[in-house]
Amino acid sequence: MRYIVLDTETTGMPVHEGHRIVEIGCVELEDRTLTGRHFHVYLQPDRDSDPEALRVHGITSEFLQDKPRFAEVADDFYQFIQGACLVIHNAAFDVGFIENEFRLIGQQDRTRITDYCEVLDTLELAKQLHPGQRNNLDALCRRYDVDNSNRELHGALLDAQILADVYLAMTGGQTDLMLASDEPEPYAVDQSLTALTPISRDRPALKIIRATAAELEAHEQRLADISKAVKGPALWQQ
Q: What Rg value do the Cα atoms of the chain yield, rounded?
């Protein structure tokens, strides 16, 4: 699966009050590595940003005066994301704005992103991994030791690059998994994930090693042992 890490900046919120996208930033991941390919554009929204939004991203109407409108970049943007899994933090926000932009220019066949992309919401993933904790992008950077020291203002491309590092750290491995027949519980998993180390974007692609027949047989036996211990099917079997 090809992954596109995506972020947008807007004139404000919510989208149904006529707010528009002013910046789109995307970076591409393949084999858990940044490819160097990206899509980045500032957009003329034909309206001013709300003061609160302007404080967040600092993109002024004067700066956007000579920038293209969404209709001028829509095809290039669609070609870049089509068929990919979009990795977005708080995906409902960005997806809603993107679908609205396609709707406003009459491209009805592109107004439902899930028809041509998968969507992975890193905010929902973070909530599952760290329930009850702060899971905004800044908090995740601190938790996973991702450098965001250059992030004085929000910017879509910069935030997409930071989110790519966070996503790789969040999904870069698993914590200690202990299987032991003499434990009260059949397995124990450390849910903190705080010991994960971010994976370098310059590392070579991972080699895929398939399980042997003997390993698959041992795996099935382990699942049988777990099922017997819990008096029901193991999670893997569900």
A: 22
Count of structural domains, the chain? 1
From 19, 89, 130, 154, active-site residue: 154
CATH no. for residue 82? 3.30.420.10
Per-residue pLDDT of 107-155, as tens digits, reads 999 999 999 999 999 999 999 999 999 999 999 999 999 988 876 667 8
49-103, pLDDT tens digit by residue? 999 999 999 999 999 999 999 999 999 999 999 999 999 999 999 999 999 999 9
Contacts of 3 (CB under 8 A, 6+ apart): 28, 29, 30, 84, 85, 86, 87, 120
Say whether 154 is catalytic: yes
Residue 214 in domain: no
pLDDT for residue 199:
57
Range of the domain at 95: 2-171
Strand partners, 42: 23
- Which residues are annotated binding-site positions? 7, 9, 52, 57, 159
Residue positions forming the annotated binding site for a divalent metal cation: 7, 9, 159
Is 128 within a domain? yes
Structure tokens, 25: 């930033």
Separation in Å, CA 14 to CA 3, 59, 60, 66, 99: 27, 18, 19, 25, 13
* CA separation for the pair 66, 109 (Å, rounded): 28
